[in-house]
Specification:
By secondary structure, the chain is of the alpha+beta class. The protein contains nine helices and eleven strands. The strands form three sheets. It has a four-stranded antiparallel beta sheet with strand order 1-8-3-6. The chain has a four-stranded antiparallel beta sheet with strand order 2-7-4-5. Strands 9-11-10 form a three-stranded antiparallel beta sheet.
Length: 256
């Protein structure tokens, strides 16, 4: 297995080297993930198999750079295992994480679509197994399959809405409201009786959470304390226990 190189590796290109995995194993792993994406989810079984066969497996160690801002967009990726942080940094070293890609998530598709430079850094927060699709292979698939073109439009629209919602949250809503909404999204749709707390392991640090919310770590800690005082969460050393109903009440606080 060939692992991704560090920053000193391929200058001006996506980091990493591709292992040519067997098509059958790639198909078995990828198809259940591809059907959950906006980009490939509308494809039929035969088309999904053709797409899966074009992906190649890649692995990155914790802390390794997948690609850097300004690199050419040579590939798109789908995560199989692990967590990848998408972030931008200012000249003075401040960093804003705007998204974490986890199992089943695509990333890097925007630059792979238009061939423009990467607009963010992508860093493996854990050991990561991903599959990569080269830009030319993607364009070949896209040109032959109209369903992928529709998927591209849907994917871009969703990404624009997500970005708009994130900017709205940072600009207009109190931090405890943004935090409550984030925790509700992380919980998914838990089926639990009213008043029963649901355990949540975010899988990343409070510092990472602060970057995703566009706030300082100390302010996020204060917001967590506020939610705890309201009975919406209980904190332990390694997990949160969340009351979805109370989080929903906080999330709706400034909607009126």
């Amino acid at each position: 297995m060939i692992h991704a190189a560090g920053k000193a590796g391929q200058a001006g290109a996506d980091r990493g080297a591709i292992r040519h995995a067997g098509h059958m194993s790639a198909k078995d792993v990828l198809i259940p993930l591809l059907v959950r994406t906006d980009l490939f989810g509308s494809l039929g079984r035969e088309e999904l198999e053709a797409c899966a066969a074009a992906f190649r497996e890649m692995r990155f160690n914790k802390g390794e750079l997948v690609f850097a801002r300004g690199d050419p967009g040579t590939r798109l990726y789908i995560v199989v295992e692990g967590r990848v942080r998408l972030a931008v940094a200012s000249e003075d070293g401040r960093e804003l994480s705007f998204r974490h890609a986890t199992a089943g998530d695509l990333f890097g598709e925007i630059a792979a679509l238009d061939g423009s430079p990467r607009t963010a850094d992508a860093t493996a927060l854990t050991d990561v197994i991903a599959y990569a699709l080269e830009r030319q292979a993607f364009r070949d698939l896209w040109s032959r399959r109209a369903a992928i073109s529709a998927g591209v439009i849907g994917s871009l629209c969703r990404r624009l809405r997500d970005t708009s919602n994130q900017l709205e949250g940072i600009a207009l809503h109190p931090l405890e409201v943004r935090l409550a909404r984030f925790l509700l999204l992380a919980l998914g749709n838990p089926q639990s009786p009213a008043g029963k707390r649901v355990p949540l392991d975010l899988g990343f640090s409070q510092g990472e959470l602060a970057q995703l919310l566009g706030a300082s770590r100390s302010k996020v800690n204060t917001a967590l304390g506020t939610l705890e005082s309201m009975g919406a969460i209980v904190r332990t050393l390694d997990r949160l226990f969340c009351d979805p109903a109370k989080l929903a009440q906080v999330a709706r606080q400034d909607n009126g």
